[in-house]
Task: inverse folding
C-alpha cells in the first residue's frame, strides 16, 4: 500500500474537500476502500429513495481512495468512465456504504468496481465499474 489512511485523509481534506459530502472513509486496503454516507432528506429524490447522483458520487470517491492506495497521492488521476447499475431501492434515511476494489492498475489507466449497500437491504443496491486515467510518470 502506497499511503496510509491518515495520509490519504489529509490529502483528501486538502485537495478534495468537497469529497466529504459523499461520505466518510472508514477503511483502506491495498487497492480497496470503504466509505459510508449517512443518508438524510437532502440525498433523497421524489419517491423516497436515495438519488442516483448521490450513489454515483459515493462510488466515485470510494474508488478514487482505493486507486490512491495503489498509486500514491496523485491528484490528476481522474474518472474517464463510470457505469452504474441500480439494482434495488435503498432504504430512505438509512446509511449507505460502498466497497471498492481495484481490478487492474496499469501505468496510465486503472479499472475498478464498487458495490453499494443500504442498511436494511441484504443484497447490493448498486454496482459500478469505473475507469481512471492517470498522468504518465516522469
Result:
Amino acid at each position: 500500500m502506497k499511503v496510509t489512511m491518515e495520509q490519504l485523509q489529509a490529502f483528501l481534506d486538502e485537495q478534495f474537500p468537497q469529497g466529504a459530502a459523499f461520505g466518510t472513509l472508514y477503511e483502506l486496503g491495498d487497492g480497496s476502500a470503504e466509505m459510508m454516507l449517512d443518508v438524510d432528506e437532502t440525498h433523497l429524490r421524489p419517491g423516497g429513495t436515495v438519488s442516483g447522483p448521490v450513489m454515483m458520487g459515493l462510488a466515485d470517491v470510494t474508488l478514487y481512495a482505493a486507486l490512491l492506495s495503489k498509486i500514491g497521492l496523485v491528484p490528476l488521476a481522474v474518472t474517464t468512465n463510470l457505469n452504474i447499475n441500480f439494482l434495488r431501492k435503498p432504504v430512505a434515511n438509512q446509511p449507505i456504504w460502498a466497497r471498492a476494489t481495484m481490478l487492474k492498475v496499469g501505468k496510465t489507466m486503472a479499472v475498478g468496481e464498487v458495490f453499494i449497500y443500504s442498511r436494511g437491504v441484504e443484497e447490493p443496491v448498486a454496482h459500478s465499474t469505473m475507469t481512471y486515467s492517470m498522468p504518465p510518470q516522469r
In short: The chain is about 20% helix and 40% strand. Residues 52-71 form the longest helix (20 residues). Residues 36 and 97 are 4 Å apart (CA to CA).
